[in-house]
Design goal:
The protein is mostly helical and 66 residues long. 95% of the residues lie in helices and 0% in strands. The radius of gyration is 29 Å and the shape is rod-shaped. This is CsbD family protein.
């Protein structure tokens, strides 16, 4: 029975390592998705800031023309 016990232990170890590798890969993908979302939020905020500044500059020019 020693051979069967060794085979069972080896199979369990391989399955555990495969599961850990899968979980690590899943975590890496999730981290990358979070990073890309954060970058998109920053770009959106910067674009909104630039839009507000351009609008305020245009209003200021109209005020100065009076």
């Amino acid at each position: 029975m020693g051979f069967l016990d060794d085979a069972k232990e080896t199979a369990e170890t391989a399955a555990r390592k495969a599961k850990e590798s899968w979980e690590d890969a899943k975590d890496r993908v999730g981290d990358k998705v979070d990073e890309l979302k954060a970058e998109a939020d920053v770009k959106k905020a910067e674009a909104e800031r630039d839009s507000v500044k351009a609008r305020n500059d245009a209003k200021e020019e109209l005020r100065d023309e009076r």
